[in-house]
Specification:
heterodimer, A: mainly alpha, MetI-like fold, 11 helices, B: alpha/beta, Rossmann fold, 6-stranded mixed β-sheet, 10 helices, 38% helix, 21% strand, globular, binds adenosine-5'-diphosphate, binds magnesium ion
Chain lengths: 285, 285
């Protein structure tokens, strides 16, 4: 078997790293907990996240409601826990889609040059000149609002950015003689790119993509906040922030603060883990 | 099929022009170059940097196309490339190549063993059951310890990496091995070991070599005949002994007398270069 990226991660983040880098391990542990929460949310959540209780509107934190309740008396902890799923799966799918598309375009542009390269340059020029949010709103205007469209729209917005980054690192990677060595062995161009060049670029790509995950999470939350993404009664975190706003003027900060902090914490943790992982992989490569 | 009368490699009037940049003057890298290599023979290719050595080596290895001329190996045209996997693999089994940069020419993600197994599997040369035995045999042929099979390129010395590259090349039993400055990046003592190894491989397998180097002493060591290139043209061609000990062409005389050694006088070399440039129609680069 060839060494997979996962193998590489395991061997390269061995026990030695734990002592030297507590921040990395705290972040990793936190993200592991978040993923477990997402998996088992219905079992852990004390209440039905959509259960309205007019007797307990904007309740402050208490034993019954550790994080308090929102404007409809729904338990914030339960909503936060259940919202983990939509809040994380969205950016994940968005990143996977944008990465597959962007890496493929970027590597083809680097390998072939020609019209694909020119087209990519034009598209990225337009994307950079064009406000990203405007593009996304346009896509949503055409295809209708909703979480799926929001994910697709953001994926389409990120793909050229990823493609441009991929192209730049692919150009130097393709110049390495091991690529010629594979060609001399008779390996086809597509196989060389997909099986050997992309994994060799993984350390550099990973650090970049992880930052984009954080951006994607915030981007989707923003779209939900604007009403273009997740729809009520979902407890997607961006939507929770938006719905909680009415309470702020009345002094009820919990309904915005709780999901807002959750978004921030996940974004920060993902960034720390991603940057450290790519540093470690890069250091050994 | 090659017979006693037709050499293994027949290159006739090869020509290759590069366009360095849009609108720039084209560079004639290879200009009307013809040569033959018989089975088991070793042909040297010498000349200053930029004289077209690598381009010829890469054309023979199938990494570069030729604009004009013909090239056959074992009677098969190598310039008109059959498409598809079968044709590609067949070409690969005819000619293999070893590159200058021993680290860059290995896939840094793979262990030595994985690299060799990959090369053999691609050509259906190692069934799962006897892959281990084949790898051990190859490691032994290039004088690497079997324990080194588990190492990755970054854990090897320059000489060991080049042994791996040689093992990878001979894994498919090619009839021609192209070496482009294959020992130029190595220390002198390591160079000697690799040259000795190449000698052994030639004796054992009867493989033909195209040995590219700017280092005349090294070429003297491993080649039977030598081609001297100047600005993409062959200026002298003959038995290596004669070419290096009794050079006839002014450029070869210059190359031979430019070699640093006891009694070497840089001023004299510079002066002779200037004299040569004055009398030749093309300036030295
Ligand atoms: N891919 C390329 N694009 C443009 N010019 C090239 C390319 N490859 C080689 N050349 C040019 O062709 C000439 C011969 O190069 P090369 O074959 O690498 O010489 P050598 O190996 O003897 O140093 C040089 O002038 C070089 O700049
Ligand atoms: Mg060269």
């Amino acid at each position: 078997m060839t060494t997979t990226t996962a193998d590489a991660l395991l061997t390269r983040t061995g026990l030695t790293g734990r002592r030297r880098d507590p921040l990395f391990w705290i972040s990793t542990g936190f993200l592991a907990v978040v993923v477990l929460v997402a998996a088992f949310a219905p079992l852990i959540a004390p209440y039905d996240p959509e259960a309205i209780d007019f007797a307990a509107i904007w309740a402050p934190p208490s034993l019954a409601h550790p994080f308090g309740t929102d404007q409809l008396g729904r338990d914030l902890l339960s909503r936060l826990l259940l919202g983990t799923r939509e809040s994380l799966i969205g950016p994940f799918l968005l990143l996977v889609g944008a990465t597959v598309l962007g890496v493929a375009i970027g590597i083809v542009a680097a390998w072939n040059g020609g019209w694909i390269d020119v087209l990519l340059a034009r598209i990225t020029d337009v994307m950079f000149a064009f406000p990203g949010l405007l593009f996304v709103v346009l896509v949503i205007a055409v295809f209708g609002e909703g979480p799926a469209t929001a994910v697709v729209a953001l994926a389409l917005a990120y793909a050229p950015v990823i493609a441009k980054f991929t192209r730049s690192i692919a150009l130097s990677e393709l110049a390495r003689p091991y690529v010629d060595a594979y060609r001399v062995q008779g390996v086809g161009g597509g196989v060389i790119a997909a099986r050997y060049v992309v994994p060799n670029m993984a350390p550099a790509l990973l650090g970049y993509l992880v930052v984009l995950f954080g951006e994607g999470l915030m981007g989707l939350a923003t779209l939900s906040y604007l009403g273009f993404g997740a729809q009520p009664p979902s407890s997607e975190w961006g939507l929770m922030v938006q719905e909680g706003q009415d309470g702020i003027v009345l002094g009820h900060f919990g309904p915005t603060l709780v999901p807002g902090l959750a978004i921030s914490a996940v974004v920060v943790a993902v960034n720390i883990v991603g940057v450290r992982l790519s540093e470690r992989m890069g250091a050994r490569a | 099929m090659s017979t006693a009368s037709t050499p293994l490699v027949v290159a006739d009037s090869l020509r290759r022009t590069f366009q360095p940049a849009r609108g720039a003057d084209p560079v004639v890298a290879v200009d009307d170059v013809s040569f033959t290599i018989s089975a088991g023979e070793s042909l040297g290719l010498v000349g200053e940097s930029g004289s077209g050595k690598s381009t010829i080596a890469r054309i023979l290895a199938g990494l570069e196309r030729a604009d004009a001329g013909s090239l056959t190996v074992d009677g098969r045209d190598r310039l008109v490339r059959g498409r598809g996997r079968r044709a590609r693999l067949h070409r690969a089994r005819q000619v293999q190549m070893v590159f200058q940069d021993p680290y860059g020419s290995l896939d840094r993600r793979l262990t030595v063993e994985q690299t060799l197994v990959h090369a053999m599997r691609l050509h259906g040369l190692a069934a799962r059951a006897d892959a281990g035995a084949r790898v051990a045999e190859l490691l032994d042929r290039v004088r690497l310890a079997s324990a080194q099979g588990a190492l990755k390129p970054h854990q090897l010395s320059g000489g060991q990496r080049q042994r791996v590259a040689i093992a990878r090349a001979i894994a498919v039993s090619p009839s021609v091995l192209v070496l482009d400055e294959a020992v130029s990046a190595l220390d002198v003592s390591v160079q000697a070991q690799i040259l000795e190894l190449l000698g052994e491989i030639r004796r054992d397998s009867g493989i033909a070599l195209l040995f590219v180097s700017h280092d005349l002493a090294v070429v003297d060591e491993v080649t039977d005949r030598t081609l001297v290139l100047f600005h993409g043209r062959v200026v002298e061609h003959g038995a290596t002994r004669e070419v290096l000990r009794a050079p006839r062409h002014a450029y070869t005389q210059l190359l031979v007398s430019s070699v640093a050694g006891p009694g070497w006088d840089p001023h004299e070399v510079i002066e002779r270069r200037a004299a040569f440039e004055r009398q030749s129609d093309a300036p030295l680069r």
